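How it folds
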Amino acid sequence: AQEKAEMVLRFATECNHPPTLGYVLAILSNDYFPYIGDLQMVEDCAQKAYQLANRHGLGHIKAMASRAMKWASNVHSHFRLLEAIKNDEDISFSMPAGGELDVGMLS
């Protein structure tokens, strides 16, 4: 399956059509690489898709890439939290004034 994903990515790159490449990168970063647990590829593909979307005004691709980047950030936060628990570190934190925890605060 990894070979097929690399082949699709290569074809999308070779077609030299930014919307197609951005869409393929966004799809892979949302639907394929998280499934196989390749966090680095999620981040790499999402970042490239986001940059292409920004450069070419592709809002739907930008939204998809942003979702993948948030997912990767949340995974990193969870790993850091698990590592802190494993190392018996103080993991206490205070709630913001509104009483809701912003997940972005953990990254």
The chain has a mean pLDDT of 85. The longest helix spans residues 59-86. DSSP finds four helices and no strands in the chain. The radius of gyration is 17 Å.
